[in-house]
Amino acid sequence: RPRILSGMQPTSDSLHLGNYLGALTSWVALQDDYDALYTVVDLHALTVGPDPALLRERTRRTAAQYLAAGVDPARSLLFVQSHVPEHTQLAWVLSCLTGFGEASRMTQFKDKSARMGAEAANVGLFTYPVLMAADILLYDAALVPVGEDQRQHLELTRDLAQRVNARFGHTFVVPDAHIVRETAKIFDLQEPTSKMSKSASTPTGLVELLDDPKVVAKRIRSAVTDAEREIRFDREAKPGVSNLLTIHSALSGRTVAELEEHFAGQGYGDLKKELADVVVGFLEPFQAKVRGYLDDPAQLDAVLAEGAERARAIAGATVDRVYDRIGLLPAR
Ligand code: TYM
Question: What's in the keyword line of the UniProt record (predicted)?
Fold first, then answer.
């Protein structure tokens, strides 16, 4: 079976609705047909200088949310990136094959470093996409399910794979991004032209999966909508309403066309009220599952240990192959 890999950063106590609808639901859907590896990318999280105790806690919480969403460790490998040292080994090799200008063109780096101020940004933030390429290429992943904001990083990963293959002979599978058009970008509830984000959302524009459902319902009921009254999907003219319809459709499983018909003649208040119910109906059982996993950290750690062991077997073979291709003298 072809392989897939994806990961999320443990930079917050909770994943948000963008992470869930943009990526996590695809992870769960794809694990039937693919040999899947899902990782909590704690090394990537170091780029924002987290508190050590908090990072450890958030790493477990992120894994618990993968499980609660339906990632099934009987079918998919679930592991913590830093438990597999090959990620940093391959990242170094790839960083020596990445142009400085090429890395400088990554828009996520440009945005983040601009937000922090150039002096505050660290070198890890700059080489972040190279580590991400290593995550993917280590496992010969053919497909990488992510949201739209990762597209450019996937392009870099493909370029690096092709570069290595051209220069040293076939070494890597060239991966494709798997981006679901409808949910590729979930927007901030208060600012529906910018993406929902852990670091850049407005305080009330973000829906975190572990937020109090009452708070979430209130945020949805006070989401920004648009001029006129009609409930119809139109990304350009009606970004607020379109975002709400997208979220409703993804969680309820009803098409946007069905929802437009269902809400015909109703007002924005009706849409928001019903959507609040849909979201809360999803969050309550989700949060109960997360609590269940967090109540048994030993069991959670056992799942992660098993995942890491199996991931290391694959990753170790890749690093051996790469080291050999590029001319590093084998240790004996
Ligand atoms: P991260 O942790 O920022 O986000 C995790 C996933 O959520 C998606 N996403 C969204 N999708 C739709 N709408 C949104 N508003 C939204 N916000 C976030 C992201 O696209 C991502 O799929 N660099 C990655 C982590 C990573 C990775 C990897 C991913 C490291 N190594 C290897 C895939 C393969 C990141 O920062 O994601």
Answer: Aminoacyl-tRNA synthetase, ATP-binding, Cytoplasm, Ligase, Nucleotide-binding, Protein biosynthesis
pLDDT digits (tens, 9 = 90+) for 114-144: 888 878 889 999 999 999 999 999 999 999 9
What atom of ligand 1 comes closest to residue 81's alpha carbon? 31
Pairing outcome for strands 35-40 and 77-80: parallel
Instruction: Point out the ligand 1 atom lying closest to the alpha carbon of residue 183.
Output: 12
Where does the pLDDT of residue 198 fall: very low under 50, low under 70, confident under 90, or very high at 90 and above?
confident
Ligand 1 contact, 132 CB (< 6 A): yes
Kindly provide the residue ranges of all beta strands, DSSP E only, lying in the chain, ordered along the sequence: 3-8, 35-40, 77-80, 143-145, 176-178
Nearest CA, atom 19, ligand 1: 147
pLDDT at 230 over 80: yes
Hey, which of 8, 9, 76 would you mutate to test ligand 1's pocket, going by the most ligand atoms within 8 Å of its Cβ? Answer: 8
Answer yes or no: is the C-beta of 24 below 6 A from any ligand 1 atom. no
User: ipTM of this predicted complex?
Assistant: 0.99
Cβ atoms of residues 65 and 209 within 8 Å: yes
Q: Are 232 and 264 in contact (CB under 8 A)?
A: no
- Report H helices in 33-77: 42-45, 52-69
Distance 177 CA to ligand 1 centre (A): 12
CA distance 76 to 82: 18
Mean pLDDT across the stretch 79-86?
Answer: 98
Residue type, 249: S
